[in-house]
Predict the 3D structure of the following.
Amino acid sequence: MRYADVLLLYAECLNDRGATPQAIGYINEVRRRANVPELPTTLSKEEVLKHLQEVERPCELAFEGSRWYDLIRWNIVGETLMKNNKRFAENYIDTKHKLFPIPTNEFQLNPDWVQNPNFGK
């Protein structure tokens, strides 16, 4: 995990709590390091979240393997797939693809466990 990732996650948390000006400050810290123009401090809470989802995290963390987990956390996997890859989205099942199956050996250790939805036992 990189420092920029930590700053962007913290900015997301601050924004969610209503501290949008502080959140913008942390986003701008990441942008200054990359020599990118700063965001205006007048953005609304919704605009900051949209910016994090569509611009800041995808650009800053490209090819680092965190995008899927961001989409799951924001609960926008389905709509993002429909917008960007309709063919893949046709096979996407929200209740199945947000979770991984629990490995079989874990059931051998604890037979009371229940498999995640759509994976069987």
Notes: The radius of gyration is 18 Å. Residues 32 and 38 are 7 Å apart (CA to CA). The chain has two domains: 3-74, 77-121. The mean pLDDT is 90.
